[in-house]
Design brief:
About 60% of the residues lie in helices and about 5% in strands. It contains 49 helices and 17 strands. The strands form five sheets. Strands 7-6-8-9-10 form a five-stranded parallel beta sheet, sandwiched between helices. Helix 20 packs parallel to helix 22 and helix 39 (about 1050-1065) runs antiparallel to helix 40 (about 1070-1085). The longest helix has about 120 residues, at about 55-180. It is globular, with a radius of gyration of 46 Å. The protein starts with 12 loop residues before the first strand and ends in a 33-residue tail after the last helix. About 45% of the residues are buried.
Length: about 1300
């Protein structure tokens, strides 16, 4: 003790002397007195204590140190105990906190579970809320529907009770009178068909209480067409004409069907027939250069303006004499595409002129309208070549159809004569505008179109584009693509029992979906004439063909046109989309055949899923929808539909397709090249139809003239390096650029492609010639031909556009990826169309392109200025682009009211500048357009002012009885209808009707429009009987108008086909030539040219008698057709004689149950009945019944119709006992085959009611009549009324209305 060794260092273990556990030594801050420290320090320093030292001093130090040590130990012990206590306390607190933490964690977990539960309950509550709201909305809709149905049911039953009570009173009042006299059947107005009315009469007088054909056997027009569509025997035809071939089921009332039939058998119809461009091919010499230059400078622009005002393009095709020899291929191709040809000749001509003249005027003299301008001078001597050429032309012109212009005056006068002749040819022969004033701004194209479409405005260019898209697709051969298996599967899917969802045709880009659908449409139209096929081909995503509102409106209009009227269709975009399913359901209920709707590339439609929601709703039972999509862009919801996927081409199909392309240019691949191609075409991107076709075109179109094999090998190797269609297109573009001879041509090619890319719907050839003055037509023709051959560009509706979207993308990547955007090209187009706008030339092209281009450039100020050009907005609105016009205003940021205010201000400013009559007429048209636009927007209050102003201007500037005044009255009446002021509306409609009848006559399309509007007004007032009468009259007028005028496109097409056939009849006598003459006569009959029809049908009969003999069945056909023509001309004696001769021939040559025999029997019986020769007609009807029973079986509806016809004859012969079982048997057949609620059942019930009444069984008569009325009232009713179907096949009732009833011959 007392030594330094007793101290411990920090960290050493100290053993507790009291049995405590060892602890860790710590530095304890102990305060040591200085003295003790000193003593301690001194004790350490000393050495060994010396002997004799003081014991006291040493002991005291040790004692003092021991006390100090003891004190320190006690203090340490106390400190240690206190710290242990603190540690224990802290451990307890830690344990307590751990427990608290665990408790809080448990509570947190419980709260989280509660939160999740509450969240799920909330979501469930929201879902339940939405479902409840949907059920409530459905319940309200069903409730409203039930209310409407109950209201209709109640009104119907009340009317039925009133009719029955009235009939009962009439029956009781006349019962005694009838019982005292004989009762027999009287035929007041014999029908044109062999279905006739039967009416009870008293002693030859018509019975007043059954007037109006109430108990007649003739069904309504709509129900008759329905029956004929569903059950169509081989002997049935639309008209009285008997022709084998494309016109066997074509009516003069249905031009669309006539054109479709012609295209089905004539797929080679030249493009000039259905092109939207009037192409004038001009052949001139150096001697007539002055006339040509004057015509091009002064008069060509006038013809172009006339055509553009009518919605067409005009293009002069002229190869200069010095350049013509180097463009021989292009000249021949342009001759084939041209609409008309002009030859300017004096005394000499080069070899190229002679070649063109022989191609146009000699080899194909009837292929085009031709004009020959001969410049004569004194002492003029023709060269031998020119003289021989004129002799050939004169010899070829057998029918004297070439328009010859002889002139000996100045070049200016000659140019004017050429212009006058061309204007006449274009109007009359190309556009079918004979007798119309195309210069009038108040008539012409827009008004004619408005008359045809009633109050619904739509764009004929859209329809033309669809026709051309379909025709171009049909022109491609698909024999090497293996489409037959897909066509069979399409037929199977369409034939599946309803309900069926839409059918999805999917495939990669370029797999041939459009080609497949086009070929299938063509087959459907041939094989199923009762099927109504509606199609739409969607083009570029930025074009109008992809606008959903325009697509749905077009399909709706085509559906409604099927029933001869399109009144009642809304113009508001949202309502068009909403109402289409309802129109589809209502119209499909009236159509007994199938309706197929085909939309190609539906995934390219803007917001397809949102705007095509009707596709996911259940479709009507007889409606099928087929849509095609790219497999990559197909919406997910549509992938659940039945799908037909186009597989990649097999190696054999690839080889066949390439071989076919190579054979066309006399090129053959080696075995090694074929193996290379086969190895390459194994992926999905390199074995689709477009890729393979393009590859074959590239390796065959760029071959040098010597056909070098090395070049072919090099081209093939370059193509095989491209792994997709876009890269292959880019290769084609580079190869074409390198093939051009100069930088100028390369620049022009690039500019053309980029302008097409930057445009809205494309660019026309005439616009390109305006944009590039240095570009001559020969070079343009060559460039466009090569681009077309490489599947890059095509022409639709007169506009150049890309054939495929991959070509568009390739042009973008090849020419615009280097930093230059399409904005500069859009600016170039904007400047061009602004220039036209500044010249007061607002064509449909300006209205289509300029606003869209400004919108793409995000130039809102200029866009608003273009829209405030009243003629631009008028053009857009009158062509039905209502939704597009609204979208532009919404983009500018204007609502409906501010937009209306802007238009009013613009009109006021324009009105201040109007001085003459022409400008006031334009102003009235603008006011009318604005009023209609505001009415369609729902701003009826603001629409009245411009419509009234339009009426005031027309009454003041023109005449109170001018036809345009009727248009203003018609539009004002529409506003009053929306206000439910029916009395005012009726007054205005009647005034408009009176003006139209006085101006145009009682059978004009304008009169039909007013009648339809009045019928719709009466229907709103529940005046159903008056409405039905007006509708029937309107339908008859529209049918007659269509027969006389025809569709512009169909009229031109049928006329051209007639000319082609006429050329074929100029050879030697033969059976084929006689058949062509017969078909030509039918064509002229369809065009209502009865004199020409008689000439060709007579020639056909005479030739057949010479070649085949007088007893050949073909002679019977000619006799039958001539008899029908004489019936049309009311020459009944000749008609009867020819029918009898035809019947005699067919009885000898044909079997007793042959359909052609039944055909002649039917029409001869109809003629006998017309002439009152009932005794002769009866056995023919009996024989016709026997033939039908053998042909169709005893339970076919056609047999029932024959039974009714025979029963009518028996009633007319007063053989009521024999007629009754025939009616009962016919009723049984109709009920079993068509259903108990079919209109034909109702018509037969009415006839049975007549006979039951005649027998005195009044209770049964009333019961039968009641049931007949129930069936009639249950028929679906449309705004357009009971109208015949456009594509129905006539049965026993001919759709070509025959002459009126002939008075019965007095005996």
């Amino acid at each position: 003790m007392g030594t330094a060794s007793s101290l411990v260092s920090p960290g050493e273990v100290i053993e507790d002397g009291y049995g405590g556990e060892g602890g860790e030594a710590c530095e304890i801050p102990v305060e040591v007195k200085p003295k003790a420290r000193l003593l301690l320090r001194s004790s350490f320093r000393r050495g060994p204590r010396g002997i004799g030292a003081s014991f006291k001093s040493t002991g005291s130090v040790d004692l003092e140190y021991a006390a100090e040590y003891e004190r320190l130990r006690k203090e340490y012990e106390i400190f240690r105990v206190s710290k242990n206590n603190e540690i224990t306390s802290m451990q307890k607190k830690e344990a307590k906190l751990d427990e608290e933490n665990k408790r809080l964690r448990a509570e947190l977990q419980a709260l989280q579970k509660t939160y999740q539960k509450i969240l799920r309950e909330k979501e469930g509550a929201l879902e339940a809320k939405y479902q409840a709201m949907e059920r409530a909305a459905t319940f309200e809709h069903d409730r409203d529907k039930v209310k409407r149905q109950f209201k209709i049911f109640r009104e119907t039953k009340e009317k039925e009770i009133q009719d029955l009570l009235r009939a009962k009173r009439d029956l009781e009042a006349k019962l005694q009178h009838l019982q005292t006299q004989g009762i027999h059947v009287y035929d007041p107005n014999d029908s044109d068909s062999d279905d006739n009315q039967t009416t009870v009469t008293v002693a030859g007088t018509q019975c007043e209480y059954w007037t109006g054909g109430v108990l007649g056997s003739e069904p309504s027009m709509g129900s008759m067409m329905q029956l004929q569509q569903t059950f169509r025997g081989p002997e049935l035809a639309h008209s009285l004409m008997d022709v084998e071939g494309p016109f066997a089921n074509v009516s003069r009332d249905d031009w669309d069907a006539a054109v479709a039939s012609l295209l089905q058998v004539s797929p080679h119809v030249p493009q000039a027939l259905w092109s939207n461009t009037v192409r004038c091919y001009i052949i001139s010499t150096q001697e007539t250069k002055a006339e040509l230059d004057t015509f091009l400078k002064k008069h060509s622009s006038v013809l172009r303006g006339m055509c553009e005002d009518l919605g067409h393009f005009y293009l002069n095709v002229c190869f200069q004499e010095e350049l013509a020899a180097s463009y021989s291929v292009e000249r021949k191709r342009e001759i084939e595409r041209s609409s008309l040809c002009v030859l300017l000749l004096k005394s000499t001509g080069t070899s190229s002129v002679v070649e063109d003249c022989e191609e146009v005027f000699v080899k194909n003299a009837d292929g085009h309208p031709l004009v020959l301008y001969l410049k004569k001078e004194k002492d003029q001597n023709l060269t031998e070549t020119c003289r021989q050429l004129l002799e050939k032309i004169n010899t070829a012109d057998k029918t004297a159809k070439i328009k010859v212009v002889d002139h000996s005056g100045s070049a200016e006068e000659g140019a004017y004569l050429i212009y006058s002749q061309l204007e006449k040819v274009i109007k009359q022969e190309l556009l079918g505008l004979e007798g119309t004033d195309v210069d009038s701004k108040d008539s012409g194209f827009d008004e004619g179109r408005e008359e045809d479409s009633g109050d619904v405005l739509w764009d004929l260019h859209d329809e033309q584009e669809q026709i051309e898209s379909y025709q171009q697709a049909c022109s491609f051969s698909t024999s090497h693509l293996g489409f037959q298996k897909y066509i069979h599967r399409l037929n199977d899917m369409i034939a599946a029992p309803p309900p069926t969802p839409p059918l999805l045709v999917s495939g990669g880009p370029g797999s041939g979906k459009s080609l497949l659908l086009s070929k299938w449409i063509e087959l459907q139209q041939k094989q199923s004439p009762n099927t109504l096929v509606l199609y739409h081909f969607v083009g570029s995503p930025v074009s109008t063909s992809s606008e959903p509102v325009l697509i749905i409106k077009r399909l709706t209009v085509k559906l409604l046109q099927h029933f001869w009227s399109i009144s009642g269709l809304s113009m508001e975009p949202s309502k068009i989309l909403e109402e289409f399913p309802r129109w589809l359901e209502r119209l499909s209920a009236r159509h007994q055949g199938n309706i197929i709707i085909i939309i190609d590339s539906i995934d390219q439609i803007q917001q397809a899923e949102r705007h095509m929601k009707w596709l996911i709703d259940p479709l009507p039972a007889n409606v099928r929808v087929v849509v095609s999509v790219n497999v990559e862009t197909c919406p997910q919801a549509w992938r659940l539909w039945p799908t037909l996927h186009l597989d990649p081409l097999s190696p054999a199909e690839v080889k066949n397709l390439v071989s076919a392309e190579c054979q066309g240019v006399d090129v053959k691949l080696t075995k090694d090249q074929e193996k290379k191609l086969e190895r390459h075409s194994r992926s999905a991107s390199t074995c689709n139809a477009l890729y393979v076709t393009l590859l074959a075109r590239i390796i065959t179109r760029f071959l040098p003239s010597d056909g070098s094999c090395l070049f072919l090998e090099k081209s093939l190797d370059q193509c095989l390096q491209c792994q997709d269609t876009i890269s292959l297109y880019r290769l084609a573009l580079r190869m074409m650029m390198s093939s051009l001879s100069s930088d100028k041509e390369q620049h022009i090619l690039k500019e053309i492609l980029c302008l097409v890319l930057a445009s809205h719907n494309g660019v026309s050839e005439s616009e390109l010639l305006d944009l590039f003055p240095e570009l001559g037509f020969p070079l343009l023709s060559s460039l466009l031909h090569h681009l077309n051959q490489l599947c890059i560009l095509t022409i639709r509706c007169g506009l150049l556009g890309f054939q495929h979207r991959q070509a568009c993308e390739a042009v973008r990547m090849e020419f615009l990826d280097a930093g230059r955007s399409s904005a500069s090209y859009r600016e170039k187009l904007i400047r061009y169309f602004n220039q036209q706008l500044s010249q007061d030339r607002v064509t449909w092209r300006v209205a289509d392109e300029l606003p869209w281009l400004l919108q793409q450039q995000d130039n809102k100020n200029k866009l608003q200025l273009s829209l405030l050009n009243l003629f631009v907005s008028q053009n857009l609105y009158k062509r039905g682009h209502f939704s597009e016009l609204l979208a532009y205003w919404q983009y500018v940021g204007k609502d409906k009211s501010s937009m209306a205010a802007e238009y009013f201000d613009s009109l006021k400013r324009y009105e201040k500048s109007c001085e003459n009559e022409d400008s006031m007429t334009k102003l009235a048209n603008l006011y009318e357009t604005l009023g209609r636009f505001l009415k369609d927007l729902g701003l009826t209050g603001q629409a009245v002012a411009p419509l009234q102003r339009s009426l005031e201007i027309r009454e003041t500037a023109l005449d109170p009885d001018h036809p345009s005044v009727a248009r203003s009255l018609h539009q004002l009446a529409g506003v009053y209808i929306q206000w439910k002021k029916y009395g005012n509306a009726e007054q205005l409609y009647r005034q408009a009707l009176e003006i139209s009848e006085n101006a145009y006559g009682a059978e004009h399309a304008s009169v039909a429009r007013e009648l339809e509007s009045l019928a719709m007004l009466y229907q709103k007032q529940n005046k159903y009987e008056q409405a039905e009468k007006l509708r029937k009259r309107s339908v008859k007028i529209r049918q007659k108008t269509a027969r006389q005028k025809g569709h512009m496109y169909g009229f031109s097409l049928l006329r051209r086909r007639a000319l082609q056939l006429e050329e074929l009849t100029l050879g030697k006598d033969s059976a084929d030539c006689a058949k062509t003459l017969n078909e030509l006569g039918v064509l002229y009959y369809l065009q209502n040219n009865l004199d020409a029809a008689k000439v060709f049908l007579t020639r056909s009969l005479e030739m057949r008698q010479r070649v085949l003999g007088p007893d050949h069945p073909d002679c019977a056909q000619s006799l039958n057709n001539l008899a029908a023509l004489h019936t049309e001309r009311r020459d009944y004696d000749l008609a009867e004689n020819m029918y009898e001769r035809a019947l005699e021939i067919r009885k000898k040559a044909l079997s007793p149950d042959h359909p052609s025999l039944a055909y002649t029997l039917k029409h001869l019986a109809m003629l006998y009945k017309r002439r009152g020769k009932l005794a002769k007609a009866a056995p023919l009807y009996e024989l016709s019944l026997e033939i039908r029973e053998k042909s169709f079986g005893p339970k076919h509806p056609s047999v029932a119709t024959a039974l009714v016809n025979l029963a009518v004859i028996y009633c007319q012969l007063k053989k009521h006992g024999e007629a009754l079982p025939l009616y009962e048997r016919a009723l049984k057949v109709y009920e079993d085959s068509l259903g108990r609620s079919h209109p034909r059942v109702g018509e037969t019930l009415k006839n049975l009611a007549v006979l039951s009444y005649e027998k005195g069984d009044f209770e049964r008569a009333a019961e039968l009549y009641k049931r007949a009325m129930e069936i009639k009232e249950a028929e679906p009713s449309l705004v357009c009324g009971n109208a015949p179907s456009h594509h129905s096949s006539s049965g026993d009732a001919s759709s070509v209305r025959a002459p009126a009833q002939i008075p019965q011959v007095q005996r």
